[in-house]
């Protein structure tokens, strides 16, 4: 007897569509890689004390022109911002460090102040 879609153990998931679009294949591979790495990280909720430490480090760097090292949230990897804060834009909730803008909401911590 010849195997078909209804045969137990056949590949029912892909049997009806023999072609996969490149975008779908890419997303499947991305998902597989994401699962292998442990998945996406969840944005931590900052407590009041940590938020104050971040604010004071940014203010100190802005006023006294001292370098600062800030941890930035990224769902896949550890990111660190190093440099001197040049501007703070309260309206758009962002800071400029060494010519590059970063969202204040993405800052999740301060690493060893005064490095």
Could you write a compact summary of the structure shown?
This protein is of the alpha+beta class. The chain has helices spanning 12-15, 22-37, 48-64; strands spanning 68-72, 79-83, 85-89, 94-97, 100-103, 107-110. It has a domain at 48-110.
Question: Can you tell me about this structure?
Answer:
It is a single chain. By secondary structure, the chain is of the alpha+beta class. A hairpin with a 4-residue loop joins strand 3 (85-89) and strand 4. It has 3 helices and 6 strands. The model has no long low-confidence stretch (mean pLDDT 84). It starts with 11 loop residues before the first helix and ends in a 5-residue tail after the last strand.
> Which strand order do you get reading across the main beta sheet?
2-1-6
Query: What order do the helices and strands follow?
Result: HHHEEEEEE
State the major sheet. 3 strands, antiparallel
Question: Fraction of residues in helices?
Answer: 25-40%
Coarse structural class: alpha+beta
Mean pLDDT: 84
Gross morphology: elongated
How many beta-strand segments?
A: 6
Strand content bin: 15-25%
- Count of helical regions: 3
Radius of gyration: 24 Å
* Unreliable runs: none
Termini gap: 74 Å
Supply database-style keywords.
3 helices, alpha+beta, single chain, three-stranded antiparallel sheet, 115 residues, 6 strands
């Amino acid at each position: 007897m010849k195997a078909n879609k209804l045969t137990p153990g056949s590949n029912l998931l892909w049997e009806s569509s023999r072609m996969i679009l490149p975008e779908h294949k890419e997303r499947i591979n991305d998902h597989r890689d994401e699962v292998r790495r442990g998945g996406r990280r969840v944005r931590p909720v900052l407590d009041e004390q940590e938020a104050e430490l971040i604010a004071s480090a940014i203010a100190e760097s802005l006023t006294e022109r001292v370098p600062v090292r800030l941890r930035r949230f990224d769902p896949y990897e550890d990111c660190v911002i190093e440099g001197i804060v040049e501007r703070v834009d309260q309206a758009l909730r962002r800071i400029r460090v060494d010519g590059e803008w970063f969202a204040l909401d993405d800052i999740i911590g301060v690493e060893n102040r005064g490095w």
